[in-house]
Target: ABC transporter permease subunit
Amino acid sequence: MKLTRQQRELGKKFWIYLTALVVSVICVFPFYNAVLTSLRTGQELFLTNYLPTTFHWENYVSALGENGVGRSLLNSFLVASITVGICLLVSITAAFALARVRFRGRKYILFTILCVSMFPQVAVLSGMFELVRFMGLYDSIGSLILSYTTFSLPFTVWVLTTFMRSLPVELEEAAIVDGANLWVIITKVFAPIMGPSLVTTGLLAFIGAWNEFMFALTFIISNENRTVPVAIGMLQGASQYELPWGHIMAASVVVTIPIIALVLIFQKRIVSGLTAGAVKG
Model:
């Protein structure tokens, strides 16, 4: 039996929606299981049940209050926010210079920036540790801001440079005719147009700083300066043989919620920013 065109279109939509549903379930299930585990205690943690049966909020209270995860949340938010602010401020000015100003060696600088962004963190850990100690930033939030900015800057500069190259030169020329200086051109002309790309790169830098573990574990030793990933990794049970899965999952859920909220709030700008610069003109 030969299918009609309408039936073929319905069949294609069915497979597309089915694939999207399967992918969504695979992506959402770990977070859903973490939420269920965070609401259980005792022997309930080891029962195979994918529907909520009990609601024990003590795990959240204990994780945020008694184990210091609440303070670590503030530390992570402070470090990630400052890192994003520095990266965007430096990146937009560097992107303007690399995209608009013609000078010898510009291509080599961009190539170097791309190569630096490919370095694994563990390859420069010892060097960063010596730099942090030399600057007197060991066991301080400043050490994390320095290291996170170092690794986030190459990516943000590269993305913003690519987007700025796609902007028409006439915008800059019109601003110069009107008497605008360089800083006004960057902040008043280019920055509003680059809003989607700034949001995308800023959010990706924020997520990277929010989730980073290795530098935070190496450079911070005091409980009051720890960030959330390290604080969760340091959670201990009543004995050395016990892992407080309820507290760990509760803290993980609390840490994940801000990222989900940011993505939902800026989702339209994120999509625009990801496709920005793909077509010139």
About this structure: The two ends are 49 Å apart (CA to CA).
